[in-house]
Each structure stands twice: as C-alpha cells, then as structure tokens.
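Residues pack. Consider this:
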Amino acid sequence: MNRKIDRLLLTTVLLLAVVSLQCATRATVVSSRPELPAPDITVAQDGSADYETISDALDDAEADDVILIKPGIYKEDIEIDEDAGPFTLVGEDPATTVIDADGAYAALTLKSDGNHISGLTLRGGESHGLYITGGRQKVDYCLITGNGDRGIYISTMSDTGSAADIDHCTIAGNEISAIYCANKDEKTTITNSIFADNKRSLIYDGDGLNLVVKYTCLHSTDTDSDEPKSGSNNFRKDAKFKDSKNGNYKLKPGSPCLKAAADGSNQGCF
C-alpha cells in the first residue's frame, strides 16, 4: 500500500515538473502587440484581397484608412507623399510580411504627417529601410534589416520637421547604423526595442538629446554609439537572436531582451 502511495506521489511530482517546464518555455515568448485593427483595405499577393500590391492600395486609399498587408515578399519601394494620408500600414506578422526595396533607395519613405507603420519587415534599401523626410510618424513591431546604410533615417528635408515614436522594433544587420536622426529640433522616442549587429546604433546631429531612448538593448561594434544621451533603463548586451545570419531575429531562450520591455513583454518586434 505504501509503495502505491509513493508511486502516486512520484507521478504527481513528475507531472507538475513537466507542466512547470512547459510554462517556463512558453513564457520566453511574451507578445504585447495589440490586436490588429479592422482594415479598410486588404492587400494579398495571391489575389484573394482588394489589391495585390501595396502601391495600388495606397493609390486608392483615403486619409486615415487602415491597410492590412497579408504575408508575402512585396518587392516595392513605397512612398507616401506630402499630400497623402495619413495611413496605417499593418503587416500581419513582421516575420513573414516583407517590403523589399530590391536595391531602390529606401523600402518605405514617409513624407506626410501622422502615419502609423506596424508589423512589417523593411529591407533591401540601397540606403535605408525607412526614410522619414517630414512629419511625426509612429513605428512599432517592425523588423528593419539588410539595408545598405541606415535602418531608419530621419532627415531635415521638410520645413515642417520630422520625428518618430519607435516602439517594439528590431533594427539589426544594417550596414552603417540602426538610426540616424538629423533633426535636432524635435524629439524622437525609442522604447522597448533592439538595436543590434549594426556598425553603429545611434547617430544624431546636435547634442543627442533629440533621441530619447528607454528600455532598449543597444549592441553595435561602435560602443560609443550604444550610449544614449537621454533616456533610461537601457543596456548593452548581445540580444541572442536565434539565427540572424539567415534572417531569424526571434530571441533565443536566455536572451536578455526577454521580458525586458517596460510592460514586462519582450523587447523588439517578436
């Protein structure tokens, strides 16, 4: 009788251990991305939606439209002009929804004010993944990688100024820098993000106080560029991507970026 009770207790302990292990494994991926908004327009390459290309969708879109982009590699260089939008461009999943500039100057150029870019990979720009020439933009849950110069370039080409609020983005594997902020008159904010495996993380004009960085992992080959002049709760550590050489920027177990965002979710877009 005692042996049966011992076996039962042992089985119970083992089952509890397995459940705990599974919970711990699941806890390494903590998504904080909000639910996707209801779209006004949907883009899908297979012809199953309103449009097959992002450019065609933008041509017919009206101000404040939400454009949902289904997974696929869209070989386009997208521009939103000064008199267009604002628009919300939402990819279903940054791992599978890709705008590939295919050697054009930038994957995405924003010239008007108030656009929101979410859940996309921006890659293949001769110079930039995201080029902001004017207006204040919102950018979140994006992967910006594989561009010839900067992941994001915030320029001073517009008289109205330019800035961005960047949250939960992974900007990695760009040739020169994660971001260059040339506008020293308006503050750009960076939160809950990962800037890694670029030659430099932060480049800016002025004293650097125009870049406010919080809860972000910065890890480039130029250690000085990993030191924000304004912000808090940042760190310089290897992000431990699963397989960055093959474009997988999800986080390994044990990454310092897991649960390191301000709300306890993972830093970066995954």
The longest helix spans residues 2-26. Helices lie at 2-26, 54-60. The CA atoms of residues 180 and 203 lie 5 Å apart.
